[in-house]
Amino acid sequence: MVVDVVDGMGAPHFTKPFLEASRNSVNGWNRDEMTIEPIHRETFVLMPRAGSKKLVVIFSATDNKAGKFTFWNVSKSISDNVLFVNNGNRNEWYQHGVLGLGDTAEKPVEAIRNYARLVGAESLYMVGVSMGGAGALLHGALAGAQVLAFCPETLINLPHSRCRKYMTPGTKIPYPDLSKLITPASRRIYIVSGQSDPVDIYCASTLEGIENVVVKTIIGEAHAVQVALHNQNKLIPLIRDFVNDRPVARIEGEGNYTKIPGFSYEYFRTYCSVSDRDWASAEMHGRNAIALNPTSEEVNSMLGRALMSLGRANDAYAFVAAAAALAPDDINARFAFASCLRRMGDTDRSAQLHTRLTVDAPELAKSYYELGVIYAGRKDKKNAKLHFQKAADLEPANPKYSSKINPVAEKSA
User: Fold this and answer.
1) Of 37, 75, 286, 391, which has the fewest Cβ atoms less than 10 A away?
2) H-type helices in 263-329, by residue range?
3) d(Cα 255, Cα 110) in Å, to the nearest integer?
4) Contact present, 130 and 152 (Cβ < 8 Å)
5) How far is the first Cα of the chain from the last one, in angstroms, to the nearest whole number?
6) Which residues pair with 45 in a beta bridge?
């Protein structure tokens, strides 16, 4: 039997089959470490820990199904009480509460405090990823909790953002700018974002310089920065430092994008212009961004793409070459460089680089297509058809690839 201090005003409820309980454990959690029985609902789960005076609230990311929660396994390494929250099915960026905890952004804060009292917690810690990071920041600021947010969009519903793409249509946004909730009285807030995601970087830059906020950006990582940290065995130590009130140490690969005045905005605007295929605007904002930060592989790549799309491969060369040099393992940067060389007329070197790409990334249809174009230009119809066919096989829905097959065959006849 469990006691729910929110839904039933103290009335007893029975657990659901989700809690696979045995004599010694509950879903892999050591029962001996629990002071009370876990509490489970489809949108939240409380896992208590004996002796802990802290409650760690973990907000799940988008599209988590009922009963599924972000960081479930990772959190087993935490020796404190954990409350998992899931608002994924609604995708409202936690602007309208959590089913079972309250239907406004403010009501879950009181529910969380009730659960903190139930387990004897004296301190609150909020953690989240992506939409969950925004939820952690929103509720953490309202509750006066410490916050660790990975890749949060703090400006809600920006153009070409995940909010814009995944948020439930018609969702009202009472808190469009989460930075406005942070006050000098706020407890420490950590933001960790990947530098290769322009939306995340622009959002993180709005928190840069605010008292008690620490912004960390990671070179070469995009929106799933927490996955990269986990694969490098850095995620759990980082979360432990955060929960144990130790300063979060410098992360290997930290960059400086949000610390360069004006750069994050121009980076974001370049990305929006490229996404809109407004190549003139992309060139303008890209050049502004490069003037502020010439070593950004992402901006070099986008500016090079814009110039190639404007038919100016010679102008694009320096930028795509810089991107490929700055990110030598980035397949797209290598592709752009090889494609630029073809457009400049150096088909021998371009073919060499594209052939290497088909070895390193055998599913990269566009490199097979580029090789088809090169062979067609050499009047090598057999190899042209072979490479166009490979591109079409990899991406059958791409009409550009399939349209090249029959014309080549007909000319060969």
Assistant:
1) 37
2) 263-275, 279-292, 297-309, 313-326
3) 37
4) yes
5) 79
6) 40, 84
> pLDDT tens, 327-372?
999 999 999 999 999 999 999 999 999 999 999 999 999 999 999 9
Give the angle subtended at the CA of 211 by the CAs of 208 and 214, to the nearest 5°: 50
How many alpha carbons lie under 13 Å from residue 189 in its C-beta half-sphere? 35
Say what the pTM is.
0.87
The type of residue at 375 is Y
Which helix H or strand E contains 29, and what residues bound it?
strand 29-30
Q: Which two tokens stand for residue 221?
A: 């990582």
**Based on the number of CB atoms within 10 Å of its own CB, is 241 exposed (0-12), middle (13-18) or buried (19 or more)?**
middle
Question: 10 Å Cβ neighbour count for 219?
Answer: 18
CA–CA gap between residue 4 and residue 36 (Å, rounded): 11
- In this structure, are strands 81-85 and 44-47 parallel, antiparallel, or unpaired? antiparallel
The backbone torsions φ and ψ at residue 410, rounded to the nearest 5 degrees and listed phi first, read -65, -40
Total number of residues shown for the chain: 413
C-alpha to C-alpha distance for 36 and 2, rounded to whole angstroms:
8
Amino acid, res. 164: R
CA distance 90 to 65: 10
If you ran DSSP here, which 8-state letter would residue 47 be given?
Answer: E
- The overall average pLDDT reported for the chain is 89
Apex 242 CA angle, 46 and 111, nearest 5: 30
